[in-house]
Amino acid sequence: MTDLLVSDFYAFQDLLTDREVESVLALRAFLEAEVRPIADDYWARAEFPRHLARPLGELGMFGPMWEETRAFANSGVYRGWLALELARVDAGVATFVGVTSGLAMGSIGVGGSAEQRAAWLPRLGTGEIVGAFGLTEPLSGSDSARGLRTTARQTADGWVLDGAKRWIGNATFADVTVVYAKDVADGQVKGFLVEAGTPGFTATKIEDKISLRSVQNADIVLEDVLVPEERRLQGINSFRDVATVLRLTRADVAWQAVGIAIGAYEAAVRYAGERQQFGRPIAATQLVQDHLARCLGNITASIAMCVRVSQLSDQGRQRDEHSALAKAFATARMRETVAWAREVLGGNGIVLEHGVARFFADAEAIYSYEGTREMNSLIVGRAITGHAAFV
């Protein structure tokens, strides 16, 4: 089988089918030709290359798990590997795909009626339209299960949404945003499809980020936003339903973390082979080799954990604590790995042109989003002890 990554030290690629490998290699070729040459420039300008949406859709990157949008039957390991490949080249593009494919399409796939799935998933799947996911709020992040302040009030004309959201990826240019709000009648969280241009809905780009600069995160304000009943996700009736979506996407973030670690590691390996000091490449020194071996150990252990979580998902056995442990572990190891990779480059490690700095910076956002390490550790801790310790 064709090698996908020299960084796949234990050949986890062997778990993929030939058809899955073919798809991954097609994605790799696209990323190397179309994304890597422009990634640093868009990152520096804090802009997103929106022209990539349609080509990514043609490659089957959006919604590979749903019957309405998948090009072929595939495994959880394959879907995770796609996230890894995207992040290995550009965490911004990986996040863009993750938001549309995992969070927005995931919300519709998990909570949408048959009619809603048929109406929205195919268009999102081709990249014809872009999705966003509105859960986090200015005053509610880790406590979203209880602390949502955005409200939904049912009227004769539909539902009226009021509130605010923050850190909503893609929201400045998304065609539809899944907004989660608390029903004032029963206190339960419900999901709504809010189309761009709906009166009372505004999205303002968050400026001056030091991480994931190309991702267009937004502050959203909702003022008397009227959403018809047919835009309410019929299967989202409590936060438990939202948690089902997050369980799926949290594992994808763990795979993204592995990709970021690999991107930084491979750049460090290339640099170490080229950089001459004291008459020889720095790759020939013990301390550099120690750093690289530690990076590879982190990467390999993280892939193993992600693979098993994906397999459990395919078997219908994945629980919240499984994806939480994978996300917490992989992102922590990613943070170590990008730091060691940056250290291999010395001062050149903070300059975009040498291939590590962007991964080093973007790792900070991945470390925190979709559940901080602390919150995911508490999800695991509850499973271990039987006691909730969130407050």
Automatic annotation (TrEMBL):
One of its GO terms (biological process) is fatty acid beta-oxidation. Residues 132-225 form the Acyl-CoA oxidase/dehydrogenase middle domain. Its cofactor is FAD. Keywords: FAD, Flavoprotein, Oxidoreductase. Coiled coil: none annotated. Residues 26-128 form the Acyl-CoA dehydrogenase/oxidase N-terminal domain. GO terms for molecular function: acyl-CoA dehydrogenase activity; flavin adenine dinucleotide binding. Residues 242-384 form the Acyl-CoA dehydrogenase/oxidase C-terminal domain. Belongs to the acyl-CoA dehydrogenase family. This is Acyl-CoA dehydrogenase. It comes from Modestobacter muralis. The lineage of its organism: Bacteria, Bacillati, Actinomycetota, Actinomycetes, Geodermatophilales.
